[in-house]
Amino acid sequence: MDSSGSMTETHDKVMNQLRGVVDPELGSDIVDLGMVKDVVIKDEGHLNITIALTTAGCPLRAQIQKDVRSRIQSITEITRVTIDWTELTDEERAKTMDRARYNLSQDDVATQISKSTKSIMIASGKGGVGKSSVTANLATGLAMRGLTVGVLDADIWGFSIPQMLGVHGRLGGNEETKRIVPLEKQVGEGTLKIVSMGFLVNENKSSLNWRGLILNRAVRHFLEDVEWGELDYLVIDMPPGTGDVQMGLAKMLPRSDMIVVTTPSKTVQAVASRVASMAQSYYLRIAGVIENMSSFITEEGKQYEIFGSGGGIQLAQELGVPLLGSIPIDPVVSEGSDNGLPVILKEGYASDALNAIVDEIIHSAVPRINPLDCTAHNTIETSVSINN
Ligand code: ADP
Predict the structure, then answer these.
(1) Which range marks the domain in which residue 135 is found?
(2) For residue 376, is it within any domain?
(3) Is the beta carbon of 163 within 6 A of some atom in ligand 1?
(4) Structure pTM?
(5) Per-residue pLDDT tens digits for 65-103
(6) Ligand 1 in contact with 137 (CB < 6 A)?
(7) Domain presence at residue 370
(8) Domain at 196, CATH number
């Protein structure tokens, strides 16, 4: 290179070409994701690029290398290319993931969920840990505080939300908008808007033998064709584990946060961490862990740790997220679920624990978005760490 001017020009051409190299896993280009650490052009057109991967042993390295080389080939000033590989630091990796998540959120599917709604996926590694009970109680708790809360029962095979919330009926349609209208339940000043497969089939008799793909489409309809209106929160009862429906939802709602429900048992904790890694691979933010069935507390206040102890806090530490709370085993929880009156509406240890979790969600774990409030807006901006 003979002049710094042409050097800058070549540098720009290189950067332009690198913007065309997309990390196949993260779905954004490597410049935007902050993976291009250094570009040095020496005399005689020798180019050295330093690329940082999310992990040193990233299997996509060969693909990225091929793409970089084939793109740089089109720049005649470059006669030789060498690539140095390095690894993103933890902090850089977090920023890269945030950026990828933000980019995905820009082209999400046109759902009827407004951008100012905070959606929370309630997930678990396996069934029977109390995920649906927690969903029904948290949604009720949010509504008790005067909020409008959508409840999407995406646990399609094992739908139990209608029973737990005591809402039964059939989904109807709005003649004008041609959209499905959720069933509503008033809780104090707040409102629950509920959609469940249970409102489409005969709740008690039908068994759903639909295949994953069809179920995935059903859930898609629930997001695209339901007239949800303005919601403060959308709480989603996810099917247990990882599968087509979970992944479909993660793709459709990339701005969603996830709360993982686990029990104190180590085995349950291990399967729950698999769900968390699915969430992370779709860049969903994990807002926290809830430990359910933590201990049994007698009337005298004595605690028995029936299912062991420590699963919740250990999972939270493993994921680097807060433990939002621990809910004791209490027959009033299942009674409440069985007769459609979530336990959070009553008094007692379980209700206290659930109410504390709801407050934690509103105040810190998943604060509400107020589009008119600059502070909230700034929080969203910073939480995705975009440096333009
Ligand atoms: P999942 O959605 O994870 O399959 P459910 O919410 O359906 O789990 O709960 C499974 C069973 O355990 C239900 O009968 C429910 O009423 C009961 N249950 C859930 N949490 C508690 C609790 N903290 N104490 C007592 N029973 C509970």
Answers:
(1) 118-362
(2) no
(3) no
(4) 0.72
(5) 887 887 787 788 899 999 999 999 999 999 998 888 887
(6) no
(7) no
(8) 3.40.50.300
Q: Cβ(327) to ligand 1 under 6 A?
A: yes
**Token pair 């990225």 in the structure block, residue:** 64
Q: In the predicted model, is pLDDT for residue 107 greater than 70?
A: no
pLDDT tens digits, one per residue of 16-73: 888 877 787 777 889 999 999 999 998 889 999 999 998 877 677 887 888 788 778 7
- If asked whether residues 182 and 283 sit together in one domain, one would say yes
Contact 262, 289 (CB under 8 A): yes
What is residue 39's predicted lDDT score, i.e. its pLDDT?
96
Pocket test for ligand 1, best of 159, 268, 292, 337 (most atoms within 8 A of CB): 337
The answer, yes or no, to whether any atom of ligand 1 lies below 6 A from the CB of 334, is yes
Please tell me whether residues 99 and 152 are part of one structural domain.
no
In a domain, 383, yes or no: no
The pLDDT, as a whole number, for residue 382 is 29
Q: Where are the beta strands (DSSP E) in the chain?
A: 36-42, 46-53, 80-87, 118-123, 148-153, 172-174, 179-181, 183-187, 190-196, 233-237, 257-262, 285-297, 303-304, 323-329
Cβ proximity of 130 and 330 under 8 Å: no
The residue among 66, 81, 106 that closes a domain is 106
Mutation choice for ligand 1 from 124, 131, 133, 290, CB with most ligand atoms inside 8 A = 133
Same domain, 132 and 247: yes
User: The tokens 């060969």 sit on which residue?
Assistant: 62
Distance 88 CA to ligand 1 centre (A): 41
Name the residue at shortest CA distance from atom 9 of ligand 1.
130
Spatial separation of the C-alpha atoms in residues 272 and 290, rounded to whole Å = 11
Query: Residue 100's domain is classified under what CATH number?
Result: 3.30.300.130
The structure tokens 């680097």 sit at 320
Q: Are residues 102 and 213 in the same domain?
A: no
The residue whose two tokens read 């695209």 is 224
Asked whether residue 248 falls in the same domain as residue 352, the answer is: yes
The reply to whether ligand 1 has any atom less than 6 angstroms from the CB of 153 is no
Nearest atom in ligand 1 to 135's CA: 6
- Cα(154) to ligand 1 centroid in Å equals 17
More confident residue, 192 or 375: 192
> Do 165 and 275 share a domain, yes or no?
yes
Residues 40 and 99 in one domain: yes
| pLDDT of 13 over the 80 cut | yes
Give residue 357 CA to ligand 1 midpoint distance, Å.
17
Pocket test for ligand 1, best of 129, 196, 334, 357 (most atoms within 8 A of CB): 334
CA–CA dist 61, 83 (Å, integer) = 11
Please check whether residues 315 and 347 belong to one and the same domain.
yes
Q: Which ligand 1 atom minimizes the distance to the CA of 261?
A: 3
113 domain-assigned: no
pLDDT for the residue 109: 56
Confidence at residue 267, expressed as pLDDT on a 0 to 100 scale: 78
Count of domains observed in the chain: 2
> Comparing 47-51, 165-169, 246-250, which segment has the lowest mean pLDDT?
246-250
